[in-house]
Amino acid sequence: MWAGLHFVVSTDLEKPDANLRKLIRSHVMQGKNRGKTHPHRARKRKGVLDAPESLTCLEGPDSNASSSGVVLPILAPRRFGSELSTICFPDGVEPKTVEVVLQFSLIAKQVLFALEPCILFERRAEDWVAPLVVDPAFLHTMIFMAQYYFDVVVPGNSRSPQVSHRALPHFLRTVKLLRDRFDRGDDQARLSFPTIAAIMGLAGHAHMTGDARSARNHMSGLHKITRLKGGVAAMRYNTKLLVDILRADLGIALHSGPKPAFFNDAHFPEPFPSYPDLTPLLNLQGPFAWHPSRHSLAPHVDGIDNELAQAWRTMSEFCSIINFAVDSRQLISTEGFLDTMAPVMYRLLDMAFEAGSSNEAIRLGLLAFSSSTFLQWKYLGGSYAYLSAALRECLAKMAVLQLPPKLVVWLIMAGAVSVLGEGDDGWLKPLLLVNIGLCDARSWGEMRDILSSLMWIGMLYDKAGKGLFDSIVS
Fold it and tell me: Are 144 and 163 spatial neighbours (Cβ–Cβ below 8 Å)?
């Protein structure tokens, strides 16, 4: 479950040779090792949370360099022309135009994954940069997405329906190239992973610009391609791409409606992914660090639905693993991320409970918490309008649910740090203050202990949670 899988580019065009791929990788790494260096200091290692008896150590990008020789200064000539001027890109794209993609690639992990410090992205630069020189649709997609980020998201206009003037030509060219590709009838090109990545880019862009209809149409197309390739299970050897596809599908569903494109086709039914067995990773924390009852809802509420209780337990265990990974400076694999996100979130979307019930309140709170943990839209300025409205309505009726104050505090805090905004402070803060008093939490430390006893990821939510708590009790 936690083993690394590699991205294999498959197109009808000739692949770049080894030297060209090496050159592209070298450009991706530019800027990562600048600043003060210590050539004789051992490079700090990070481990991978893989199995109790196997903590694989990873070196940095220079790990294969010899350290036994004498270190001599190297005088490099000043740069002449573009950094990519020696590479011929398809469709007549000038090398300097591609530089925005490499600039974005240096920060993409932090921008797109809230849990980035805890995830091992194997071969990511190689897998996502090398196809730029062989697939024109993929190339233009990556350009318009990177340009949109710098022109629209960074200035704070994330929900603008406008495409920046620098991104628009590449957006239109992507659409034209994909239409031509599907008209030609070449299944190898139409079903290739660069094609899938290009369509996914269009879906994400439509969602960010508020075009819900186009976003859903693109996701429907991605689902059809996935079905032709053998279903979700057949896509697992491209784990990072599958993660991105499912995250886009979930984000669109949480924004515009509850039905995702995947695991929702009566004509091509696919079973939900199985829940992962996280016991080996939980055992890494030591024999007394965790117990199954710690991650159960049973001690806190009666009559909990069994399927909902399983989703809660899996998510609670995952949070425990992430907190351990942060404290011990370990990493989980992309597969571990996928194997928790998909079964938990798709099942939560599929569950149906009576409006205003305890089960529905817990489902919505857990869905909000999971969305902020796994998805990227909030960090790009997006929103989950459908989920926010449903959770807001549910929490407004919290007084009649008769849930224990400890669970009510968690539900309110989970919503506040994930999908709710400052506009909700008027009703949210008084409700939270009452239940904080019932829990007798007089400091943020005591409050955090309450949250952690259910589920909490300090790296993601401590800052926002403490800010909200201090604004109420001070």
Answer: yes
Spatial strand order of the sheet with 54-58 comes to: 54-58, 46-51, 330-333, 119-120
Task: Report the range of poorest mean pLDDT among 56-60, 147-151, 271-275, 451-455.
Answer: 56-60
Q: What single letter denotes the amino acid at residue 393?
A: E
Q: Cα–Cα distance between 35 and 353 in angstroms, integer?
A: 55
Q: How far apart are CA 370 and CA 342, in angstroms?
A: 10
| CA distances to 5, 95, 98, 101 from 24, in Å | 21, 12, 11, 12
SS3 content of the chain, % helix, strand, coil (to 5): 60, 5, 35
Q: With a cut of 70, say whether residue 27 has pLDDT above it.
A: no
Three-class DSSP category at 290:
coil
In the predicted structure, residue 361 carries a pLDDT above the cut 60: yes
* Amino acid present at 93: V
pLDDT band at 315 (very low <50, low <70, confident <90, very high): very high
Q: How many whole angstroms separate alpha carbon 93 and alpha carbon 132?
A: 10
Contact between 223 and 352 under an 8 Å Cβ cutoff? The reply is no
Strands 46-51 and 54-58, by their bridges, are antiparallel
Please tell me the predicted confidence (pLDDT) of residue 291.
Answer: 63
State the virtual CA torsion across 67, 71, 75, 78 in degrees, nearest 10: 30
Predicted pLDDT of residue 69: 45
Strand partners, 55: 49
Would the pLDDT of 64 be above 60?
no
Token representation of residue 183? 């008209």
Q: Which residues contact 313 (CB under 8 A, 6 or more apart)?
A: 292, 295, 296, 297
Q: What is the DSSP string of 66-125?
A: --SS------PPPP-S-TTTT---GGG--HHHHHHHHHHHTTHHHHH-TTGGGEE-TTHH
Contacts of 35 (CB under 8 A, 6+ apart): none
**Neighbouring-strand partners of residue 46:** 58
Q: Which two tokens stand for residue 472?
A: 């109420």
Please count the other Cβ atoms lying within 10 Å of the Cβ belonging to residue 172. 13
Q: pTM of the entire structure?
A: 0.81
